Model the fold of this input.
Amino acid sequence: RQMCIRDRRYTPAHGFKKLARKLRTSCRITDNRDSLLDDSFEGVDLMVFPNPDTDFTVSECEAIERYLARGGACLFFPQSKETRGQSEPPNLNFVLEGHGIACNDDTVLRTVYQRGYAHPTEACISDGVVNRGVSDAVAAKRSDGNGCVSFAYPRGCTLNVQQPGVAILSSGYVSFPVNRPVGAICEGPSGSRICTLGSSEMFTDNWLDKENNWDLCQILISWLLGNDSFKLNSIDSAEPDISDYAHIPDTSCSALQPKSVSYTHLTLPTKRIV
Done:
């Protein structure tokens, strides 16, 4: 099996070094920093797109779709809002929306204290598995058979998911936005498989061994490579436990834009009230 990582920042030698070492026995990992052509996917079983910092061109999008039409597999991680600052996000949604998945321009925040997590954008989610098929697969890999799954989710965004996409992970009830999708998969009619995770750092060297991140990484990559590492629960797939996206006002921005208010003059009574 061959897995190709297409990124400038995260490569098998930097960022994904620990992941490459763990997967060395099961697949060969390469990197690609050139423009995407049909030849770029030759012999590749899984193409990984971590932290894309530039827009995909029309020809690259078409090459990705042709690769998926041939039964290929892709793993997408959107660029975090903290990494790009105020610049516009890359057009990753142009590739994903046709498969029922879209990335939001937001950041999941931790609302409670958690030891070992220094910043609010570093969330530890303990109630975020939406589909029971994922938790059952993690329990099967653990010696104690415990299906309680928690995962570290640093500087990640939320997703919008609709058919044919299926939400498998959420932000849980102690993070904000509350209980929104952060991980989704899609299986196409040609046998193609797509997985999107909202955090580009989730499987990097600093976070791979946190919580159950490595267990999730194993079953997702195995599924993308064509193995049946987990079976989705049909009820959870059709009606996932996901909350609606709640918009709140930007208080800090509103405070910097004070507006004048006019009051109507009130005539006070002149007679003395006894």
Notes: The chain has a mean pLDDT of 88. The longest helix spans residues 58-69. The radius of gyration is 23 Å. The chain is about 20% helix and 20% strand.
